[in-house]
Specification:
Elements: E1 2-3, E2 10-11, H1 20-33, E3 39-42, H2 61-85, E4 95-98, H3 119-140
Parallel strand pairs: 3-4
Antiparallel strand pairs: 1-2
Helix pairs in contact: 1-2, 2-3
Length: 145
């Protein structure tokens, strides 16, 4: 959802964000319409009771939603988030919020192993990867919290 900075109206951008190419397209649309971004709020996720399922891009569907899509959104939109912090009209930190969490099971973090794959191992691995990536991005972009 993008709020038009002129009209103040929200516009929903529909995309299957389990596909990284669709994340890139959605980000391209946002970058074409916005000069800066104050808030990036992410909640993509899902559940599958049928086990491991690949996207047409060859990525585990759930892991794509829980990790790759989120990090790709951040990477693609960092220029707009960084611009927000230097704005004269709104001189404050931009914010990235990723709703996701749960316990971390360190005995098996691999979502590739079909014998140990489960919804929980995929979620745990994505959570660990997302946390580490967020820490790195926060350290390298201190003006975006």
């Amino acid at each position: 959802m993008v709020r038009d900075s002129v009209s103040g109206l929200d516009k929903f951008i529909e995309a299957d964000v389990s596909l990284i190419k669709n994340v890139d397209s959605a980000c391209k649309e946002i970058r074409a319409k916005e000069e800066r971004l104050n808030l990036l709020f992410m909640t993509p996720g899902g559940i599958s009771l049928s086990g491991r399922r690949e996207t047409p891009e060859g990525i585990n569907h759930l892991f794509s939603l829980r990790y790759y899509a989120r990090i790709r959104f951040i990477q693609n939109l960092l220029p707009l988030l960084s611009t927000s912090t230097t704005s004269i009209t709104t001189p404050h930190h931009a914010h990235v919020i990723s709703i996701f969490g749960g316990p971390l099971h360190t005995t098996d973090l691999s979502p590739k192993s079909k014998s140990t794959y489960s919804i929980l191992t995929c979620a745990s691995h994505a959570l660990a990867m997302t946390s580490l990536s967020m820490e790195h991005l926060a350290a390298t972009h201190p003006s975006v919290s």
